[in-house]
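Reopening this ticket.

The earlier resolution said the output was attached, but the attachment link was broken on my side. Pasting everything inline this time so it's all in one place.
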Amino acid sequence: MTAVPDDAFGDVPPEWVFVRTEFHPVDDAESYPDFAFVESFKHLELPEPDITVDVEGTDVVLETTDAALFVAVDASPLSGHFSDNYVHLTPGEPVRLSSQGAASESELEEAVSVRSLESTY
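Inline output:
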């Protein structure tokens, strides 16, 4: 393990920094991003994200203008679940989640809501 030097991010405070990496397997299998944080979550200075939600059939597409961490999607009182939850969103990188349930597009549009880490404090 290598320590990050104190001046690695220039004048940017560590509570504003995270590192995003992504592994691309050789066999074209689906890859997922990974995030590392310099500070603990409670010390992060998170902006209030503007998360847009688009329902496309049984998929929910999330986008943001600012980093949004631990974004959770809920569609109560509908039954079922999503293909993933508690995702991190970064600007310019939409995330598509599939609904695993019997809800129609219009039912999902009416029921779906999102929250992120920033909205919990």
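Reporter confirms the inline version is readable. The chain has a mean pLDDT of 82. The first helix runs from residue 105 to 111.
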